[in-house]
Design brief:
Layout: H1 11-23, H2 28-40, H3 42-47, H4 49-54, H5 57-61, E1 66-75, E2 81-92, E3 98-104, H6 110-126, E4 132-138, H7 147-161, E5 170-174, H8 180-194, H9 215-233, E6 242-246, H10 250-261, E7 265-270, E8 274-277, H11 284-293, H12 301-304, E9 309-312, E10 327-330, H13 339-347, E11 352-354, H14 363-371, E12 375-377, H15 379-382, H16 385-398, H17 405-429, H18 436-454
Parallel strand pairs: 3-4, 3-5, 6-7, 6-10, 10-11, 11-12
Antiparallel strand pairs: 1-2, 2-4, 7-8, 8-9
Helix pairs in contact: 1-2, 2-6, 6-18, 7-8, 9-10, 9-16, 9-17, 13-14, 16-17, 17-18
Bound molecules: NADPH dihydro-nicotinamide-adenine-dinucleotide phosphate and (2Z)-2-iminopentanedioic acid (2IT).
Length: 458
């Protein structure tokens, strides 16, 4: 059942999509991510259909190398036993050790893990660094848990995860609900169980024990480097523009920091409860204190800036998307912007969307933006700065040295400039002009397919 309206010319592609959909019928996010990529690859697939078919390239691409699911029992502060489900998806290791974050959020399930791991294969290929695609996490909800409960959960999670990871095998990092604190507890437990100091087994570590300067900032900064390149290529000046940023976690905060540095006025940020609107521009120090220090709610911003406004999310579109801005930066979670929301943003005059989150726009929303000449910086390219800097952390760990903030930031900037170039050139090569969504998929696919074909049928 292909739900997408468009005609598929390649019988091979059509069959693969249909079979994969039938096999994974309950995994809607995975199917969404898969279709977005595969449909856009059609021109490349048509060109090489016989070769791909002969080695079942697409069938292998859509099937994870390994799916690991495990029980995570832990004892809460009241002495009650809790049980969560843990995952690690090792999707594709053709280019390097599996690499990708861990997400702790109650919505986590196999479909979400597989969509994230699938996206990660392409994202990691675009970085130009030797990393394969993986993702993991748990349906554990870190909200309202004590520090002790977080530690106990992380330790139990690692008791099982450690059997499946290693610096040359699979290197997890953070994602939603997993930041520096969690990586610290996870690393400590890995070190204790394995009785070895294997710094490169996790990234996003603290600076005292093998972390890299600028990793914390990397995803948000990288997003803005990509945005700057995209606007520049379309003769749009960055300075003086307005922006709204959904989320107020790691990616959102550092996207805001770099946007402000570039002369963009950030009008609004949000969390899952609602958004703050500050017509004078967001006071980022206040947001950092609320989110990074107090682990509080975005609403508390009004205690710092009483002239700002707070809008609670209703049942329809998230409140933040009713605010008018030039640049839209969804940095919270998947499917935040659907077609209805996209229509509002377009009618409000948005000129560019930068996906800081993974798959924050539905496929229909992305198509609508592109049809309406809104530039889209696709997540797998625009938010690749985080994982790229994780790979730089791995390099520093292997060589037992550490680079300065400026060195890492410069490398990150060069990587993002290069990713934009790849997206732009691949789009042009296949006559998609400034459709960077298609460009990113094609550029990444060429690299992955090349590596998979070279390594034979495995
Ligand atoms: P954080 O946990 O630091 O922040 C997530 C933010 O999104 C919070 O403000 C959270 O609000 C908000 N949010 C709103 N709705 C939801 C929802 N339904 N589920 C989860 N969060 C929600 O995560 P990150 O900033 O690290 O990640 C944000 C996005 O960026 C994710 O899509 C992630 O996959 C992607 N990403 C992250 C990278 C990284 O290096 N960290 C790299 C590349 C992509 P609340 O507190 O109310 O839940
Ligand atoms: O989605 C992502 O790219 C991440 N969460 C970061 C992964 C990593 O390994 O740094």
């Amino acid at each position: 059942m292909i739900t997408c309206e468009r005609q598929i010319k390649s019988d091979y592609l059509k069959t693969v999509i249909e079979k994969t959909e039938a096999k994974n019928i309950h995994e809607k996010e995975f199917i969404q991510a898969l279709k977005e990529v595969l449909l856009s690859l059609e021109p490349v697939i048509i060109k090489n259909e016989n070769e791909y078919k002969a080695s079942a390239l697409l069938e292998r691409l859509v099937e994870p190398e390994r799916v690991i699911s495990f029980r995570v029992p832990w004892v809460d502060d009241k002495g009650q036993v809790q049980v969560n489900r843990g995952f690690r998806i090792q999707f594709n290791g053709a280019i390097g050790p599996y690499k990708g974050g861990l997400r702790f959020h109650p919505s986590v399930n196999q479909s979400i893990m597989k969509f994230l791991a699938f996206e990660q294969i392409f994202k990691n290929a675009l970085t130009g660094l030797p990393i394969g695609g993986g993702k993991g996490g748990s349906d554990f909800d870190p909200k309202r848990k004590s520090d002790m409960e977080i530690m106990k959960f992380c330790q139990s999670f690692m008791n099982e995860l450690q059997k499946h990871i290693g610096q040359d095998l699979d290197v997890p990092a953070g994602d939603i609900g997993v930041g520096g604190r969690e990586i610290g507890y996870l690393f400590g437990q890995y070190r204790k169980i394995r009785n070895t100091y294997e710094a490169g087994v996790l990234t996003g570590k603290g600076l005292e024990y093998g972390g890299s300067l600028a990793r914390k900032e990397a995803t948000g900064y990288g997003l803005m480097y990509f945005m700057r390149e995209m606007l520049k290529a379309n003769n749009i000046q960055v300075e003086g523009k307005t922006a709204i940023i959904s989320g107020s976690g790691n990616v959102a905060i550092y996207a805001c920091e770099k946007a402000q540095e570039m002369g963009i006025k950030v009008l609004a940020m949000s969390d899952s409860s609602g958004c703050i609107y500050d017509k004078n521009g967001i006071n980022l120090d206040a947001v950092k204190e609320i989110k990074e220090v107090k682990r509080g709610r975005i609403k508390e911003y009004l205690n710092y800036v009483p002239s700002a406004q707070y809008f609670e999310n209703g049942i329809n579109i998230p409140a933040i998307y009713s605010i008018k801005a030039d640049i839209i930066l969804p940095c919270a979670t998947q499917n935040d912007i659907d077609l209805e929301t996209a229509k509002i943003l377009v009618s409000n005059g948005a000129m560019a969307v930068g996906e800081g989150a993974n798959m924050p726009c539905t496929n229909e929303a992305v198509e609508y933006f592109i049809e309406n000449k809104v530039l889209v910086a696709p997540g797998k390219a625009a938010n690749a700065g985080g994982v790229a800097t994780s790979a730089l952390e791995m390099s520093q760990n292997s060589s037992r040295c550490s680079w300065t903030f400026e060195e890492v930031d410069k490398k990150l900037e060069n990587i993002m400039v290069n990713i934009f170039k790849q997206c732009s050139e691949s789009a042009k090569e296949y006559d998609f002009a400034n459709n960077y969504v298609v460009g990113a998929n094609i550029a990444a696919f060429k690299k992955i397919s090349g590596a998979m074909i070279a390594q034979g049928i495995i």
